[in-house]
Amino acid sequence: QGLYSSVVCPGLVMSNMTYRILPVFLWKLLMPIMWLVSGSTAVFVRAPLGRCASSVWLFKQKPEYLDSLVKYHSCTSGLGRCYVEPRKMDVDEDTAEKFYQKLLELEEQ
User: What residues form the membrane-spanning segments (predicted)?
Assistant: First the structure.
């Protein structure tokens, strides 16, 4: 039917939803550590536009050229450059096909 589906991950995004997980005083203690760690890991997205980098990048791609067994991650380098990193999901093609067939069955119901 010309429909495509891809999986994206925005990375670790600090938002008002994130702050509700722990009490405010605990976040004040953790934030300096998180900022230090963010320089050495790519999954902590600091730039506001970086939070949706994978979604925007994916939107600009031709769906038929994308790998359906890949998850596209928004990442940020230590210098703040945003980029998208594809990572293979732990799902083989047979399992993916079974999921798809089950989805079609559910849609018919």
Answer: 24-45
